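Support reply, case 0932

Customer input (verbatim):
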Amino acid sequence: MASAYRAHVNLAACLVSRAYCVSLVPPPETSPAAPSLRTGEIDVANAAEMRLLFGSIFGKPMSEAFWKWKYRSSNSHGMGVWDDDRLVAHYGGVGVDVIFDGKPALAVQIVDVMVAPSARYGVRTHSPFFLATSRFLERYIGYQRTYLIGYGFPSDRHLHLAQRLGLYASVGGMSELSVEGSTTRLPTELLLQRRTITAENFPQYAGAIDSLWKSMQTSLPAAILLRKDSQRIHYRYLQHPENHYRCLFWRHRLSGKPLALAVVKEEPSRALLMDVVAAATDFPRSTVGGKCHDARAQPALGVLAEFCVGAEPASWRIASKGAAHHYASQYLFG
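Our regenerated output:
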């Protein structure tokens, strides 16, 4: 089975834990913000302005339903910068529950960072980008604040700008691993039973998903794990207002023991593995034993590592037709 590392993606973070913040570059001299600029929260009352800015920057609309789904939680926030009465910058964060040092904590994934082209002032501490970012970080991330940990996946340009301004810095990266599909089953897979979980039959699998989540925590004690219980899986993938995901569940055919849950997003030329809930030793069941050997498999399987931020490098073995490929990364996301 062929495999290849593809696009490398930055991982940037402001990890305000154990009394430190990842920030390697000292900030430049500060300058007062332009008198016409003001900052403020994005809420239901002004969300339409944020969605309008999103459409103009990214070239695709953000529906009201999607905004409500993404930011509906009281733990999700958006910081805006207005030039007079026009929204020119936005810095968003989606709150996520994590297990940190074996204890529950709240983290935030940075999303929807955008500045109107007319308001891009470069590397300046009075720029809309700096104002939106710094106000968000100061208000929400750190001890005694809403979030203990902040992380995101910025573009090279965004990361370089944030580093120059001393806001945060890179702590690692991600790679996309592509695996060639196959319809050939390995002998050991005959003992696996797979089912597709839908919104309709979800209640009968909720307990099994919670059991898998507990097994995952036990198998990765040194990792910072994003919560992956049944409630989170249901909201993230089965209540999404626009995207369709396939939730694939495996259990042992004889004992009935739950083994793995994998969430897949199918595209015309590939399938993307979006999430996995399983003990670390069972990851190969959900990556290879599941999608790659599905008769409906697409030509390639893109593995998007989205599990957790780990303290120890994780190695995961993918085997097919006698060949073994090892994928190791210090960071797993989910």
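We compared this against your earlier run and they match. Two observations from our side: The radius of gyration is 21 Å. The helical segments are 47-58, 64-71, 128-140, 156-164, 206-219, 230-238, 283-287. Please reopen the case if you see a mismatch on your end.
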